[in-house]
Structures are given as C-alpha cells and as structure tokens.
Design brief:
The protein has 9 helices and 7 strands. Helix 1 crosses helix 9, helix 2 (about 30-40) crosses helix 3 and helix 4 runs parallel beside helix 5. The chain is α/β, with parallel strands linked by helices. A hairpin with an 8-residue loop joins strand 5 (about 130) and strand 6 (about 140). The structure holds adenosine monophosphate.
Length: about 220
C-alpha cells in the first residue's frame, strides 16, 4: 500500500515527480494547489477565496484546506493508495491529516522530501510553464523539460502559461511561508519514522529513480 506525501519547497519538482509516481503506481494524485486552481477557474466561492491567497503567495487558511482534503481522501479511489502533493503545509494540517487517515484506516506509509537550494528554486520558477487546462495541468520547464512545440502543451495542445503566483514577488512570499510553516514538518515526520529525503536537484529521471528506490527498497535477504 502506498499512502504517500511528497514534500519540498516551491519549485522543487513536486508536480513533475507526482506525474511520474501516479503513472507508475496508478494511485490518485491529490494536489491541493491543483484543486484550488480548478475551484478558482470554475468561479466557486471557495475558489474565489483561495485565489486571493494564492495570487499573493500566501497559504489558504487551514480550515478550508483541511476540508477539501478530507472530502477527497474519503473517496473510494483512495482506498488502494494515494499521493498527497502540497499537503500538509502546516503543523495544524499535519495533525488533522493524522487524525483523518487513522479514522478512515488509510495511514501514511511514506513521506518523501525533495531537497533543493534556494538559488536553483528561483531559476526553476522563472522558467516554469504550466498547462492551464484544468483536466490536464501538465508542468514544463523551458530549460530541463521543454514542450515539444514551443508554447504548447504536449498532452492536450493548450497554450502554456506562467502561473499567476510564479512572479518573483509572490515566489518570495511562498518561500517564506515554506520556511516558516512547512519546514518544521520535516522534523515532525522524521520523528514519526516516515521521512525519506531525496535530492531534487538531479535530472528528472534520476530524482524519480531515487523515489522508486524509497518506495520499493531492494529486498534484504539477511
Ligand atoms: P502549489 O501548486 O502546491 O504550489 O500551491 C499553490 C498555492 O495553493 C499555494 O501557494 C497556496 O496559496 C495554495 N495551497 C496549496 N496547498 C496548500 C495547503 N496545503 N495549505 C495552504 N495553502 C495551499
């Protein structure tokens, strides 16, 4: 059973690695960022509220975020595993997740933290482009994962865009939120005995190979 959290600072490659993980293991990808972007694009009340926080680079309030994850994780497709990407981001969210996963008997099995240094993150965010089609959402990097046709999504052909919150100002706020509120979760999950760290600065396929090694450790016959 793979009940996974993929953690890391903004720009560490969570979206790209999530795509590879869900493809290989066939588990649902639960990205709170994607869920908020979809809600914002559909113009729902939650979406409008979330967009104000997102565009400023701030975290959406815990109670709103926990509620959407609770609803999503309780769906039947999560019974055989799930991948959480971008959740939890605060200690309150981590505690709520622990209670929830125990209640629904779907406890976490792995927490993978992608490590990347700040200078590299700034470069990555500047060259990130995403597909705004909510049923696609593919992510590209003009340097390391360029689309085959300039400016177009390989998967659905939509025009690629720079995310509203990938501006240098918004990125700074997101990084501060990460350092202040999300970074302490690394220690939290280390103490739970669930944390595995992976170098997120290597090539995409090398990072993925390290993740697979964490999820499928070599059999030890001793
Ligand atoms: P992401 O796509 O994971 O980078 O998330 C984009 C934005 O969505 C974040 O900068 C936050 O504004 C919001 N968001 C996503 N996940 C969370 C979360 N777990 N808690 C609070 N806000 C979140």
């Amino acid at each position: 059973m793979l009940n996974i959290i993929l953690m890391g600072p903004p720009g560490a490659g969570k979206g790209t690695q999530s795509e590879l993980i869900v493809k290989k293991y066939g588990i649902p990808h639960i990205s709170t960022g994607d869920m908020f972007r979809e809600a914002a694009a559909s113009g729902t009340e939650v979406g409008k509220k979330a967009a104000e926080y997102m565009n400023a680079g701030k975290l959406v309030p815990d109670e709103v975020t926990i509620a959407i994850v609770k609803e999503r994780l309780s769906k039947p497709d999560c019974a055989n595993g799930y991948l959480l990407d971008g959740f939890p981001r605060t200690l309150v969210q981590a505690d709520a997740l622990k209670t929830l996963t125990n209640e629904i008997s779907r406890p976490l099995t792995h927490v993978i933290n992608l490590i990347a240094d700040e200078d590299e993150l700034i470069n990555r965010i500047a060259s990130r482009r995403v597909c705004p089609n909510t049923s696609c959402g593919a992510s590209y990097n003009l340097v390391s994962k360029a689309p085959k046709v300039d400016g177009k999504c390989d998967l659905c052909g939509h025009d690629l865009i720079l995310r509203d919150d990938d501006t240098p100002e918004s990125f700074k706020v997101r990084l501060e939120a990460y350092k202040g509120k999300t970074y302490p979760l690394i220690e939290y999950y280390r103490q739970e005995g669930l944390l595995k760290e992976v170098d997120g600065l290597k090539a995409i396929d090398e990072v993925f190979a390290s993740i697979v090694e964490v999820l499928e450790p070599p059999y030890d016959c001793n």
